[in-house]
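User: Please look over both lines:
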Amino acid sequence: QAIPASELFTPLTNKEVAAQAVFTGLTLLDWNQTLQIARHPEEYSETNPVLGEHPSVGKVNTLMSLGIVSHAFVTWAIPKEYRPYWQYIWIGIETQSVHMNWKSGLRINF
């Protein structure tokens, strides 16, 4: 059964905005760590198959920025009933990425 158009592209609640901010913050941390991987391929390798084992700085910047923007768009586009699943699954994925990077010796350097 098709989702009614009236359920798509509805304004985000304050809770959804907060979850989006958490996702974005975690992704910025992951982005920072991934740039360290790109800049030091002799020390680190990337495990995200989309980026590849030794991504360039340009590829990291392009894909991470697109990821943040597309995640926000999908969050806005999908029906409210699915938003928590979408947001919290991705918050979990990003939390795991930052944690694993940290365990590998990558710190947050701005």
